[in-house]
Amino acid sequence: MSRMNYRMLGILYAAIAAASQPAAGQLTIPGANGSDGAFSPIANIAIDLAQAATGVWDASSPVSGKGIYDPDKWAVVFKYTSVSIPTNVTVTFLNHPSGAPVLWLVNGNVTINGTISLDGEEGALTKQRALRPGPGGFYGGIGSFGSIAPAADGFGPGGGNSVRIPGSGSTLGAGSYGSLGSGGSTAGSTYGNDQLLPIIGGSGGAGRYYETQDLRFYAGGGGGGAILIAARDTIMVSGKIHADGGRSYCTAGNGSGGAIRLVANRLAGATTATFGVIETAGGIGSIGNNCSGFEGGLGRIRLEAVTVDGNLAIFPNTVNVPPPNPPLIWPPSSAPQARVVSVAGVTAPDDPVGIFDTAQADVVFDSTDPTSIVVETTNVDPTFAVVHINIEPEFGARFSVVASHVSGDYSLSTWSADVSLTKGLYAVQVRVALP
Questions:
Q1: pLDDT score for 368
Q2: Would the pTM of this model clear 0.85, i.e. be above it?
Q3: Which pLDDT score is estimated for 216?
Q4: What percent of the chain has pLDDT over 90?
């Protein structure tokens, strides 16, 4: 039994009022101590987020350039003195085991003439497994293994649904995030907020099911990843930053776009006839001949700058909002939170991995009795809140149960629900709905 790695899944809270807006000048970026040095690659580079030391996000990085992974914040944080990505250089990422998103806190300027990519993984005949997301995003659902194992829904709060139709295969949908993916009633649900607090990525598309064929390679595309770049001075984008959803192989669901948040005193685009590109598109089309995947929903973009100039192409479009000084990097301590405490009496880890791997399951149990899942909430009024526990198997359709309030109050409450499970691997997520 494993829990998905979205710490505050689907939590709804009021928009956070901005502090006083700064005058033109420099921003004070929390935690930007420069301990990761200057980031200036001269060739294509894949940053391995697993190399980050585990610690507190605003501490100095023990190994310069490797960053810090903070389990409590669920983020890999780099504190650079400056960033410069030259033309024809592409920066990609290898996911942290937790799947956490990326933060760059920069005590200087950020210049992006090349490309930063946090795209979800695309399908291929050789990929007979779930397709990986960008950092902070969620996996696509694997395709079917004939009649033995039906196709899986996409993962994440907006994962697409794969509905088996006996005798004719399945109907399925794409992942959603800031907008609905295609697939009608089988598309995932929208989620998140305009502030991108907390910052999370896109959801996966559904896998395709056929009655008799092994079509595991018909997996849904991975969701786009998530990145926050906050700079004391200027963020200049004449190249590209994209966190797009992955395309499926042939006729499965595509992943949704992820999230990009840029915070700076000045945000600048290209000064020539070209445009700097900031994009969180859903997967469009498919990999393979004569196929058409289900288009993924759009991700989210948040721009916060005192001034904006130059040419920028932004998709989906958004407005610029002047940031408070210092900017708000994390949700306030008063924000609602929820976490899984235990499953079948086995304590869940504080930092779950949430992947389908028998050797890395977060919780392991063996029981034929109904399984009790215990959830803990903070800053949630139990009088009005509804706690949903979403359970998704490695193969087949997800389902949801509503937990009952057991004890506690607004500051700390315990909830539980009993579910019946067959043997296998599952992902568990919690969503708190507030009025």
A1: 67
A2: yes
A3: 76
A4: 66
> pLDDT tens across 29-76, in order?
999 999 999 999 999 999 999 999 999 999 999 999 999 999 999 999
Domain boundaries, the chain: 2-8+334-433, 17-330
Task: Assign 3-class secondary structure to the chain.
Answer: CEECCCCCCCCCCCCCCCCCCCCCCCCCCCCCCCCCCEECCCCCEEEEHHHCEECCCCCCCCCCCCCEEECCCCEEEEEECEEEECCCCEEEEECCCCCCCEEEEECCCEEECCEEECCCCCCCCCCCCCCCCCCCCCCCCCCCECCCECCCCCCCCCCCCEEEECCCEEEECCCCCCCCCCCHHHCCCCCCCCCCCCCCCCCCCCCCCCCCCECCCCCCCCCCCEEEEEECCEEEECCEEECCCCCCECCCECCCCCEEEEEEEEEECECCCCCEEEECCCCCCCECCCCCCECCCCCEEEEEEEEEECEEEEECCCCECCCCCCCCCCCCCCCCEEEEEEECCEECCCCCCCCCCHHHCCCCCCCCCCEEEEEEEECCCCCCCEEEEEEEECCCCCEEEECEEEEECCCCEEEEEEECCCCCCEEEEEEEECC
Topology (CATH) of 2-8+334-433? Immunoglobulin-like (2.60.40)
